[in-house]
Specification:
- The protein has helices spanning 18-36, 64-71, 74-85, 108-114, 144-162, 204-218, 254-257, 278-295, 330-340, 345-352, 386-392; strands at 6-13, 41-49, 52-60, 88-89, 92-93, 98-105, 128-135, 168-181, 184-197, 229-232, 248-249, 301-308, 317-321.
- It is 33% helix and 24% strand.
- The chain is flat and about 60 Å long.
- The chain is of the alpha+beta class.
- The chain has eleven helices and 13 strands.
- The strands form four sheets. Strands 1-8-9-10 form a four-stranded mixed beta sheet.
- α9 packs across α11.
């Protein structure tokens, strides 16, 4: 029997966090290539520090002339991301920072293992293990600590960018310690928020006065109490932020991207990778399956694990754990999820329509627990497999 009464903590970071700046640029490059060619191959990494952004990795288009043309657009793509995030600091400004593009053509040795040819099906882009998770403790079937940590920063970004709160800067981190009773979230024992501010004269108390109404707005009613501890800009001033304050790197916030530590993570990062890379697409598929299991009422909580080998199309294993809450056995659910969805790399991409420029929007505030978009973004958040799962059991 799992514990029913405890406190669990998760953190989030804003779109202006140095690592998230890098995730955004990497996914913007990916979107640009997918907009040109749905089968484009991209593995893009970004590094950012004071007045400099370095972009590297492998890309591939079937038309080499178009590939050369797109290489010339990388500088503009990166600057547009930095501008939208809001960086106009002396030592990190979208107009003046130096952009170095080191992208090159995809390795032929990787391509030969992934591409379909003859009677060989398209294989996975790499070996690896991927996890998906869902829980009925929030409307979005996400763990409460990470979902509300994201919500705080997303709301602060909205009021910053709209001009309602011009004192706030792009770089921020949040952390929530959520109290569980009888296995359900009921309150918050502590709130931690560090946010960049543009006016050096502002104190921690001033910042708390600015952010408190928005934090109260996004948290469920009654979760904050007189016993809740607040730590807002606990070190004092936070004026120098973003890559000027701390270097950033693509893929360094994978727990923020997923479930805030409430569920396992296979280790692979998402941003900058096209959906032939099962690090990304199979993790999305695992979330989709777990969410549909919970959404169909087949379990209160569900973890799905998938595993792959490079160049091999079908998953090596499917694992399910419903933590004793399943309406069917875990083994039966494992069989059912394998029947209702083709879990080859191509099957995942086609089912979730992933060969589209929909990834830049995932780079901050979580890849999961989001509302599906009309253009296919966050398609893995749909709950539309319930009848098929029940029929397969």
């Amino acid at each position: 029997m799992s514990r029913q009464n405890y406190t669990f903590t998760s953190e989030s970071v804003s779109e202006g966090h140095p690592d998230k700046v890098c995730d955004r640029i990497s996914d913007a490059v990916l979107d640009a290539f997918l907009a040109e060619e749905p089968e484009a191959r991209v593995a893009c990494e970004t590094f950012a520090t004071t007045n400099r952004v370095v972009i590297g990795g492998e890309v591939g288009l079937s038309d080499q002339d178009k590939l050369r043309d797109y290489m010339d657009k990388i500088d503009d793509i990166a600057r547009a991301c930095i501008k939208d995030i809001g960086y106009e600091q002396d030592k990190f400004h979208w107009q003046t920072c130096e952009i170095t593009n080191l992208l090159h053509e995809q390795s032929a040795h990787i391509a030969q293992g992934v591409d379909a040819s003859g009677d060989k099906d398209e294989g996975a882009g790499d070996q690896g293990i991927m996890f998906g998770y869902a829980t009925n403790e929030t409307p979005d079937l996400m763990p409460a600590p990470i979902q509300y940590a994201h919500a705080i920063l997303r709301r602060l970004a909205e009021v910053r960018k709209s001009g309602v709160e011009p004192a706030l800067g792009p770089d921020a981190k949040s952390q929530l310690s959520v109290i569980y009773e009888n296995g359900k979230p009921v309150g918050v024992s502590s709130v931690v928020l560090s946010t960049q501010h543009l006016d050096a004269a502002l104190t921690s108390e001033d910042i708390r006065a600015i952010v408190t109404p928005y934090i109260t707005e996004v948290l469920p009613e009654g979760w904050l109490s007189d016993a809740t501890e607040w730590h807002v800009n606990p070190t004092g001033k936070f004026v120098i932020g973003g890559p000027d304050g701390d270097a950033g790197l693509t893929g360094r916030k994978i727990i923020v991207d997923t479930y805030g530590g409430a569920a396992p993570h296979g280790g692979g990062a998402f941003s900058g990778k096209d959906p032939t890379k099962v690090d990304r697409s199979a993790a999305y598929a695992a979330r989709y399956l777990a969410k549909n299991v919970v959404g169909a009422g087949l379990a209160e909580r569900c973890t799905i694990q998938l595993s792959y080998a490079i160049g091999v199309s079908k998953p090596l294993s499917i694992y399910c754990d419903t933590f004793g809450t399943g309406q069917a056995s875990d083994a039966e659910i494992e069989r059912a999820v394998g029947q209702v969805m083709d879990l080859t790399p191509r099957g995942i991409r086609e089912h979730l329509q992933m060969n589209r420029p929909i990834y830049q929007r995932t780079a901050a505030y979580g890849h999961f627990g989001r509302t599906p978009d009309a253009d296919g973004g966050f398609s893995w958040e749909k709950v539309d497999l319930g009848d098929a799962l029940k029929g397969a059991l």
